[in-house]
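Example record used in the benchmark description.
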Amino acid sequence: MGNILMEIMKNKLIIKYAMFIAIAFFSCNNINAQCLNQVFHTKSTITINGIQVTVIPSGDCDTITTYCSGNTQPYLIGANYTYPNHNGGYTFQFSPPVDSLTLNFGGINGGGVNKEIVKIYINGNHYSISSVGTLNGCNQLAVVTPSGDITGATNGSSSGWSGTIITGPINEISIIDSVVIGVPNGTVFSLYICSKYTNSINENNKLRWLVYPIPTNDKITIEAPNKSIIRISNIQGQTILEQTLQQEKTDIDLSKIAKGFYILRLNYSEKTVLSKIVKE
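Model output (structure tokens):
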């Protein structure tokens, strides 16, 4: 009888341990999940893998293509150095709502004579960040304020982090940079979205294609099925180039376009894929 009880207790411990490992694995996957569909445009509406994303700029804001190797680009808020009208932000609206999103930040001032605070609003309500993200490779870690907002480290150097993950459903998000004191340099951030709609499209989209080199100086090479239609747009949504590919490997001349971020959209047989292009 004693042996049987010991065996039962042993089995219970094994089950509990297995459940603990499973929960830990599931939690880590959720916490560290990086959304893959990056938003680039700075105004108007563009469809990104089945999600209509409307971007509305407000106040002092701009774009940037040279900060932190693309990790925290292209949005720059609080960018006009005219104190005190220095606040700026972007609002993103999603239709249908996204399941989650990832934000990366950089360039935030927090100490000395210049200090700014970044606030996030989800579906019209203030969102309180519970913890910092991970180092972005360009800044020291920023700080979470008692209200759950983001500010820079107290020594005054530029701060930021990667990997702020917010779960939904999310119809709208606003990221706003506000001046506390002085004339900060503004905040840079990038946005990635996750959705069951984009996932289903990606899973069914067995389109084989390549775009290289990225970044580029003068041209890109596209490997895709013959008769694919490509469209290159700037981050304002304006079409720069559109053509039908006449062979499976095509060189596209970009020598005459300005430096910066562009979006390549490729359509073939009712399938659509997107890629980022960086012209240096």
